[in-house]
Amino acid sequence: MVTAPPVVRTVLGDVPADRLGVVDAHDHLFIRSPLLPGQELDDTEEAAARLRAFHGLGGGTVVQWTPYGMGRRADRLAALSEESGVQVVAATGLHQAVHYPPDLLDSVRDSLAELFVREITEGIEGGGGVRAGLIKVAGGFHGLDAHARLTMRAAAEAHRRTGAVIAVHLELGTGALDVLDLLCGELGVAPDRVILGHLNRSPDAAVHRQAAAAGAYLGFDGPSRANHATDWRMPEALKALADAGFADRLLLGGDTVTPDTPGMPYLLRRVRPGLELALGEELVERILVSNPRGAFALRR
Question: pLDDT per position in the chain (300 positions), as tens?
Fold first, then answer.
């Protein structure tokens, strides 16, 4: 029996996973939250400029982790992808409860899995046929609350029905092992169908190694926020994981969340050359090009 080659679901349709090029594995073209009043990313021209700059630096694909109800502007993603030449992967899913009005959560709480499946298989409402290619959920600070458990259960069900990967926001990089205990232990999701985001924000080498050994993908994404300076430790963390045999588990992203975030061009203009000096070009190429092919492919 001939097995079909793996594909990634972009906003312009499914593409072979080996055609992603250089991948920003975690970013946002559009996002809004009541926690960031006045700092919304909602300007189409600015999004287009970031994509053009990313493309000009050799970028091929951007994975937007903005989930349901947070201003992801699905209606603009296809045109932006076409105009820039950058492939875009959109997200379904749900963030932490604090990012939503209570009435919105009440309206979807009992049908989350159906919502996620519909957005992956049929399309995002108002998105002109754009379908999501991953499921974004979120943990809490060093633990999982009832909302996180609810959304992760729905994500696991949607994953089983669609093959889409589950991408997890870790609050300040914490709670990775609790997430894996729930998703992979209790709910039966294969560890290599889980991406753990923001691990650079909690440079705990033991946790990193345990998560990688379990088989999950590890996302090192976004420059440090003020008073949380961990950027200088990221090369050391990546090298330790690669030396331990986990080079194939690593991903990099820019995580643009406010207009003043350096963003996706910064990933290739500054982060990539610095990592190449510290880690070597071959390893950085693997992290940016080879690893995302497996991470984002639709696979049950």
Answer: 557 789 999 999 999 999 999 999 999 999 999 988 999 999 999 999 999 999 999 999 999 999 999 999 999 999 999 999 999 999 999 999 999 999 999 999 999 999 999 999 999 999 999 999 999 999 999 999 999 999 999 999 999 999 999 999 999 999 999 999 999 999 999 999 999 999 998 989 999 999 999 999 999 998 776 656 678 889 999 999 999 999 999 999 999 998 988 889 999 999 999 999 999 999 999 999 999 999 999 987
Give the CA-trace dihedral at 17, 19, 23, 28, to 10 degrees.
-80
Distance CA 263, CA 115 (A): 29
| Residue 100 to residue 88: CA distance in whole angstroms | 24
- Alpha carbon distances (Å) from 133 to 124, 195, 221: 11, 13, 19
Which residues lie across from 61 on neighbouring strands?
23, 87
Domains in the chain and their CATH numbers? 92-295 (3.20.20.140)
Is the Cβ–Cβ distance between 284 and 275 less than 8 Å? yes
What does the block give as tokens for 44? 């189409």
Q: Is pTM, for the whole model, over 0.85?
A: yes
- Concatenating the DSSP letter of every residue in 153-174 gives HHHHHHHHHH-PEEEEE-GGG-
Closest alpha carbon to 15 in 76, 81, 83, 71: 81
